[in-house]
Design goal:
With about 230 residues, this protein is mainly α. The chain contains eleven helices and no strands. It is elongated and about 100 Å long. The N and C termini lie far apart (about 95 Å).
C-alpha cells in the first residue's frame, strides 16, 4: 500500500520544521560564540570590560544554558569590582558544568579575591584538583595563589595548596621557587618534602639564612645546611 499524499505532505512539513529548527539553533550558537570571543578579547583590558560584559550578556541571552557565557559574565564582574555578583554567577555556571576543572579553579580564585576562606574555598580547590588530574596550568595557578595565602588558610586548605605546589614544583621548579621567594614562603618548600634532601640543599640553606634561622654555611652547629631544631 502506497503512502497517501496527505501523509507525505505531513512528513515533508515535519522535516522542514526540524531542519529549520536546527538551522536556527546553529545560527544562535554561532552568534553566541562570536559574542563570547569578543567578550573575552575585550575583557583583557580594564578600559573595555564594560563592553565585554554587555557582549557576554548578549551571548547568554542567545545561549541561556551556556556555562561559558555565565563564566564570562562572572569574570567581567569580578574585574569590575562586583565580587558577590561574580560569585553568584560562578555558582550558576558550575550547576551547568559541574565537571569543569577550569571553572572550579576560577571560582576558587574569585573566592580568594573576595577574601573568603570558608568551606566553599576548600570545596572549590578540591574539585578543581580532582577534575584537573594532571593539568599543569590549573595546578600552577593554584600553587601561586596557595603560596600567597598559605598563612591565611585552614589546615585542610593548606594540605590542598601543598598538593598543587608539589605538582607545580615537579613540572616547573624555577617558577615555583621564584613565587615562593616573592611571597617569602621558601621554607614552605623546604619543610614539606617538596624540595628533596632539603637539609643539604643550597637554596634551602639560603632560605634559612634569609629568615634568620642560621648564621653560617660551614660545618658549625648553626650551619644553614642543617635543618634547625625547633625550640619547644
Amino acid at each position: 500500500m502506497g503512502v497517501q499524499p496527505s501523509t507525505r505532505l505531513l512528513l515533508l512539513s515535519a522535516l522542514i520544521v526540524l531542519v529549520a529548527c536546527g538551522v536556527y539553533s546553529n545560527a544562535r550558537w554561532i552568534l553566541a560564540e562570536s559574542y563570547l570571543r569578543f567578550s573575552e578579547q575585550r575583557g583583557q583590558s580594564s578600559e573595555t570590560r564594560s563592553v565585554a560584559q554587555q557582549a557576554a550578556g548578549i551571548a547568554l541571552k542567545l545561549q541561556p544554558y551556556s556555562a561559558r557565557a555565565v563564566q564570562s559574565q562572572a569574570s567581567n564582574d569580578l574585574f569590575l569590582n562586583k565580587p558577590q555578583k561574580a560569585l553568584d554567577e560562578y555558582v550558576k555556571a558550575l550547576t551547568l558544568a559541574p565537571a569543569d576543572a577550569y571553572l572550579w579553579r576560577d571560582y576558587a580564585l574569585a573566592l580568594v579575591n573576595a577574601g573568603i576562606f570558608d568551606q566553599r574555598l576548600d570545596r572549590a580547590v578540591l574539585q578543581a584538583q580532582t577534575w584537573a588530574r594532571k593539568s599543569k596550568p590549573i595546578h600552577m595557578s593554584l600553587a601561586v595563589v596557595g603560596l600567597r595565602v598559605f598563612s591565611q588558610s585552614s589546615p585542610s586548605l593548606r594540605a590542598q595548596w601543598l598538593n598543587s605546589i608539589r605538582f607545580a614544583y615537579w613540572t616547573k621548579p624555577a617558577v615555583v621557587l621564584w613565587y615562593a621567594y616573592v611571597e617569602e614562603q621558601e621554607l614552605l618548600l623546604c619543610d614539606n618534602t617538596i624540595i628533596l634532601q632539603a637539609d643539604t640543599n643550597a637554596w634551602c640553606a639560603a632560605a634559612r639564612w634569609r629568615h634568620g634561622l642560621c648564621s653560617n654555611f660551614g660545618a658549625e652547629a648553626d650551619s644553614c645546611f642543617r635543618k634547625p631544631v625547633k625550640k619547644s
